[in-house]
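Researcher: Last one for today. Full complex below.
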Amino acid sequence: MLIWLSIALLSGCAVLGLLWPLAKPTSERHGRDDRDFYLGQLADIERDKSRGLLDEVTAEDAKTEAARRLLAVVRDDDVGVDPARRVRRRKLASLIALVCVPVLAFTLYGQLGSPNLPDQPISSRSSNLGENPDLSMMIAKVEARLADHPEDGMGWGTIAPIYLSLGRYDDAIKAFANALKILGESADLRSGLGEARMASADGIVTAEALVDFNMALADDPTNERGQYYRALAAEQDGDKSRALVLYQTLYASLSPNSDAARLVSKHLAALSGIQGKSAIDPNGPQSDMIKAMVARLDARLATDGSDLEGWVKLLRAYQVLGDGAKVKAVFARAKAAMSANPDGLARLNAAAQDLGLSNEPGISN
Amino acid sequence: MIVEIGHFALILAFATALAQTVLPMWGAVSRDPSLMAMARPSALITFGLVLIAYGALTMAYIGSDFSVANVVMNSHSSKPLIYKISGVWSNHEGSMLLWVMILVLFAALVALRSAEMPERLLASVLSVEGAIAAAFLIFIILTSNPFLRLTDLPAEGQGLNPILEDPGLAIHPPLLYLGYVGFSVAFSFAVGALIHGRIDAVWARFVRPWTLLAWIFLTLGIAMGSYWAYYELGWGGWWFWDPVENASLMPWLMGTALLHSTVVMEKRDALKVWTILLSILTFSLSLLGTFLVRSGVITSVHSFASDPARGIFILGILTFFIGGGLVLFAWRGPSLKQGGLFAPVSREGALVVNNLFLATSAVAVLVGTLYPLVLETLNGNKISVGAPYFNLTAVPLFVVLLMLVPFGQSLAWKRGDLLGVGQRLLAAFGLAVLAMIVTLAARQGGPVAAPLGIGLGVWLIAGSITDVFYRSYRRGLSWSSVLNRALGMPRSAWGTALAHAGMGLTVIGISATVWGVETLAVVSPNEALSVGPYRVSLEQAFKRTGQGFREEVARFIVMEGDQAKGSIETSKRIHTGREMPTTEAGIVTYGLGQLYASVNDILPDGKVSIRFYWKPLVTLIWGGALVMAFGGMLSLSDRRARIAVSVKARRTMPAPSEVSA
Amino acid sequence: MAMTRKQKRLTLIAAAGCVLAVATGLILFALSDKIVFFYTPSDLAKQGIGAGTRVRIGGLVEVGSVQRDAAMNVAFRVTDTEKSLSVTYKGLLPDLFREGQGVVAEGVYEGGDRVQADTVLAKHDENYMPKDVADALKKKGVWQGSKSP
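Model: Here's the assembly. Have a good evening.
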């Protein structure tokens, strides 16, 4: 409410300010005109002459010229105005200032503004940041320490998951990589690196990330994160049977009531036949993250449609989210974007087939 | 809430800018004093609103409000305060907002300093300013809105780019914009005059201080940018004929021409139509510069790429204002009362020559800047137009122009005496030739162009001194009264002399770069190298950490003969969190020259691969620009150049009949 | 000194004409002689450019191809993923010069696949790739554009 009051006040002041000159009675002569200028110039010449900066002849010349122009100005004086038209004109002008200005401003603001969002300066946000109110302070400290001791592998290993949770994916990738380089191979770090890569690729387990997960599993076959993402990769690739097997193996090793087990069981439920339902718990934290990533990818493709790989990713993502309508819509958009590129179109169709999209006539040729 | 008030203020400013465009212009056309009177408050209100918007965005930056997308993209809570503030304009959206804020600031200043101005002219001028502001405000609101919010807050911002955290880069854009945008006032005055259908010395007197102000800022902005490139890019170059640099040079050249032609108009009521055209062209080049930089259309070391929608929008604004201005000029220009003609050999004749050369060189730079774009659009060929092109086209024009400067400066108005001027300048000419011969003899070898350049610089400086001397010297006067006369000269005359001498200093600095010495070597600790007149020896290479970075430093001892003069440090710096190394050049100033060190690599065995320069007189390049700007400021402070006619002058003014008697 | 109005006008026009003619001549000459064309390595191979021509080439620095010696000579290969060129250069490389990254080099084409560069530019920051290079590589489908938020 306060925000509306404030902006109403602001527009009120602005409109009043605009209208101010109309409210004042008009005097005969407003302000100065060219006459005063030439009178001033004549005075200037006189002054320069008295200070000896101009000689007699030049000064006289200059004065004659200024006087001549002065006369010209006086001759070209204003013409009279019809008072009735003047009143009408002022009414119209007041109307413009009084109505058009606020209406235009409020309409545009209604379209673009977010009046209900409060300010969120970082100092007032500490409680929202979760467990640790001084997280950014802590990060700064660790970063400062790492600056002095870049060889501190534990430091990199500590900060990497924090970067990941903050959404600083590229920093997380670097930190995990540094930690691995210094501390040597470790399944946890390796799968963390894969997770960071996955996050940075908008939630898709890329080939690069998969390599990391496989390395993590080679090191420690029981690594849960590695197992989970390997299964997810299979699922995203459309290899449902393999995904099912991998999820089942993982599920067997988890304690039944853990969060992880619930997450995996959702995947299992989705894969083992309950079609049309979301493959991912629509309320789970994973889903939120993935949805945000997918939305970003979607937005990017809406502006730059030339990225074939991006389209395929997006198709897969919506497939995974179980949003059939979106899948169709995106497929149509992708085809439109690729229409000028027969090669891309062919690859797109192939990818769509892999995903098991219904092959409407006219698509596959 | 502050953020949203800022956003609303920005949108409201668009609405009031529209009102500022329409109502006063209507008043000016229908000669209604009340509507015309709306110009002043509306300009002030628009400025106030943009200021609120800008302040709100700055608050969001200072408080690291990551609910604002623009802050997330370009700031970080651990940035030092100063870079949070400068972060506002270090990105596209914020810098456009700064651009508009400076624009409306100029309009507000015109409104405040216009007590002496004819109302109709003021109303038209502020109306045009309002139109430009409205166009750029809607551009910001629709395509580059810095107030867009996020509901899903990230914990940290992404804008921690240490490369951009540099004091030079922080001050550079505001200075440059003050220059660019300042020329909008001249443009508005020109369009106002065209609509008015009347243009005379009054007009010139009002427009000159604004042109001068813009010119001063642009001069400083260009010098600043050049020095930044010199120390930051790490290879000691100070001008690259880069499109972004050209974008600021073109309005400077055109603006310099404008500055001189308004003088002719003010003093002699001539060159009117030409001055109007120059005003339009100067601001057009400013707009073009904004377009080139903002649309990302040009490849360059500075460019930050943007999306094409913005480019097309700015192109639309550009076409509207340049096209509109020129169409108006073509339509109304011929109906303006022509000014008088004058003798070719006279001060005003010389200023025409100045205009001719400056405008032509601006066109040469324009062609070189746009040609690659045109060619790529036409046939897809990609070319680069670099220093060789500009050295062959713009530089000869500059040289001829500068050779003529002392003549023009010494010629009298109306009827000049070329022979007399030649005699007076004989001493200056002798000095220039002497300087040439001495440098030629002292510096055996090197291109002949360099001593010629030194001679040219000395010629400019000596020419200015000659001018001051003959203005104050009369036969039979005692030296103290000559000095008094010199000190009593109008400040604008001093300004001219200083600005021209400053140009001379810059020319000397540029010419001397030819004698710069470059030494590339790999050295071990305590191994000595000779660089120009100095010897440097590697003291040690060591690691060091600073706030947010770690670096490998090479420290050298500088010796002159056997005398130690000091030390110089250069480093390879790696910023935390970004695996992006930067080279920090070490610069030490000795006299007017600089020793410049740039480390290439620090090898594991303690050896250092390094590049050294000795750049004699190099500081004169920027020092000269400072002197030029100072000359401009002196001229601006001249009572007679100001808008107001002083109270005292008005009180003592004689009646016109007395004068013509 | 007493010139008529017409004479004054003519003098002015003649002076302006001379300066403009000279300037136009200079510009035309400079544009035909002093500009440098941009090529990708495959362009250079295809178009049969003569040895000794000044060229500007762009592409990615081939991974593993950079060789330096003690005298600060550098050799590296620039590729557009189809063809590649061998570039030699003496002096400091830009900070952002790295294997696998975009680069523009200007210098003399020495025939074959050799270019002797006198200027090497790397990309300016993380988001900036020389436009020439980006366009050329985009056509080949390598570069995916700057990362969007």
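The CA atoms of residues 22 and 134 of chain C lie 38 Å apart. Chain C is about 30% helix and 30% strand.
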